[in-house]
Amino acid sequence: MGASSSTANASPEAHERREQETLASAALALPLLRAAFSRAATTASALPDALAPPRASFRLPGSLPPPPPHFHDLLARLGPAVASLFFTDGAAAGAEGDAGWVPFLRGFNRCCARVSASRSLALLLRVYAAAGAPCGVQFQPDEGGDEGGKVVGELAPEEIAVFLWMCWVMAWSGSAPKVAADDGGEKSEPVVVLLPDVTHLVLAALVSAGAVADDESVWGWEISSGGKGVKVQEFTSWVLSTASGLGNCLSRYVQERLRSLAADSTEENSVSTDNTTFDTSDVYLLTRGRAWAIALSLRNKLSEKFLPGSVIGMDTEDLLYRSSVHGKGLSRFWSGVEGYNGPMLILLSAFSKGGAENVDSGRRWVIGVLTEEGFESKDTFYGSSGFLCAVHPIFRMLPPSGKEKNFVYSHLHPQIRVYEANPKPVGLAFGGTVGNERIFLDEDFSKVVVRHHAVDKTYQHGSLIPNQGYLPVEASVLDVEVWGLGGEATRRQQNVYKKRENIFSEQRRKVDLKTFGNWEDSPEKMMMDMISDPNRVRREDR
């Protein structure tokens, strides 16, 4: 009763402070926020500097054109832009003690409190425009103030690419290790960081908005080619349906920067080059850009598995099978995935038949399948969940439709051959029905057939390859990769399974010669006795 009366008699300032602390504690621990606030309040530039990304030199791989000149200027103004947009009420301008604590929490909650995905994307676009990006985005404040305003305007293809790179840098800054300042205060040269290729994401946004037709024009499309832009409302719709993870970029970024500020005030805002290689080349089908696109599209815990791979590349220990290394064929594939009872990503690169010029012109496409359980040798479909995705040249994620559960079909030749009037196909399949699969990969891994989504009720509708019509598309397979996503525990279980199977195989190979050492009990003597006197009456020994 005393507590209720004290709460009722609390001043408005105390009530607001308690409300802001409760809201902020849902995102970050209050002691950590206290430590970050005390260090941010030392000077007026402490918080903008802390909210800036680590110092690094960003560039694209040699085969791609460089990012626009204003991209590095945008990153340099990112910290001040976040501070000025959200922490404007004297939160860090030398306001020490309780005087600036509530404004600091208020600014933190503006950008990190849980809000709708569209609201989070609108805040991210505000940061993008406030950092000085030359874009056509405008803001229309409502009657209650500018925070709930409407975002309007248009984004050109190059502006979408720069926006996506800015979001990737935000995700990268959380994984970049810090380096302390030298005794002399000298800063090391910034490490070179390769930006991911986001062409497939930009193209997906343009095709979704109708700015680029989903036909032959998709092949060879480049960001630098320009073209028609996308309205902010259309871009928002595409993000919510395909790349919903973009809405979390700002909240994650601010939390990571404040966590870094609270951890050690002597850290420099740069990245360490020791034992870390950010200049990684994308040598696998699962490039960093493709891993990031998959991470943005997923809304479950598997998204966290792809985020580190989108920054520094996937862990090669998770590569279960690669046809260019382990050999093509279902048996080679099975030796890599057998016993792995966890989620897996299968990527398949192919080119449609119609002449060798398809390969030379770069008309190779990549599709993927995300399964949430291990493979089994069955002549029927099985599985509980999964995703299909078009990966290159355009990105699409096709989640389950909920109508059927024909997620995976993996049928090997049986060890004991028997006659079958209607033998089931041997190979891998995803979606559709037996004999009419949406994706079917033959046992030699030389041919893949992709059918129209009308034959499939398991996965949602959508084209997996550009310019896909109603007829089945038969293509030649170039490469197949399988990545395990179950973590170290699942890998250990698979190793135990393989060791046990090897022991059983060795036992089956061994022959007990003692059973052939006694002539009286041998089948050869029995046959000889029957031939010598077949009419002799024999009594069974009991």
Q: Mind sketching the topology for me?
A:
Blueprint: H1 2-8, H2 12-25, H3 30-40, H4 46-50, E1 56-59, H5 70-76, H6 78-86, H7 98-112, H8 117-130, E2 136-142, E3 145-155, H9 157-173, E4 178-180, E5 191-194, H10 199-209, E6 230-231, H11 232-242, H12 249-263, E7 267-271, H13 288-297, H14 303-312, E8 319-322, H15 323-326, H16 330-337, E9 344-352, H17 357-360, E10 365-371, E11 386-392, E12 396-398, E13 409-411, E14 427-433, E15 436-442, E16 447-450, E17 473-484, H18 487-509, H19 523-532
Parallel strand pairs: 1-5
Antiparallel strand pairs: 2-3, 3-6, 4-7, 8-17, 9-10, 9-17, 10-11, 11-12, 13-14, 14-15, 15-16, 16-17
Helix pairs in contact: 2-7, 3-12, 6-8, 9-10, 9-12, 10-11, 13-14
Q: How would you characterize the overall build of this protein?
A:
It is a single chain. The protein has 542 residues and is of the alpha+beta class. The chain folds into 2 domains: 24-90 and 99-175 and 190-262, no CATH class; 308-416 and 423-498, no CATH class. 38% of the residues lie in helices and 18% in strands. The chain is built from 19 helices and 17 strands. It has helices at 2-8, 12-25, 30-40, 46-50, 70-76, 78-86, 98-112, 117-130, 157-173, 199-209, 232-242, 249-263, 288-297, 303-312, 323-326, 330-337, 357-360, 487-509, 523-532, and strands at residues 56-59, 136-142, 145-155, 178-180, 191-194, 230-231, 267-271, 319-322, 344-352, 365-371, 386-392, 396-398, 409-411, 427-433, 436-442, 447-450, 473-484. Strands 8, 9, 10, 11, 12, 13, 14, 15, 16 and 17 form a 10-stranded antiparallel β-sheet that branches. A 3-stranded antiparallel β-sheet has the order 2-3-6. The chain has a two-stranded parallel ribbon with strand order 1-5. The radius of gyration is 30 Å and the shape is elongated.
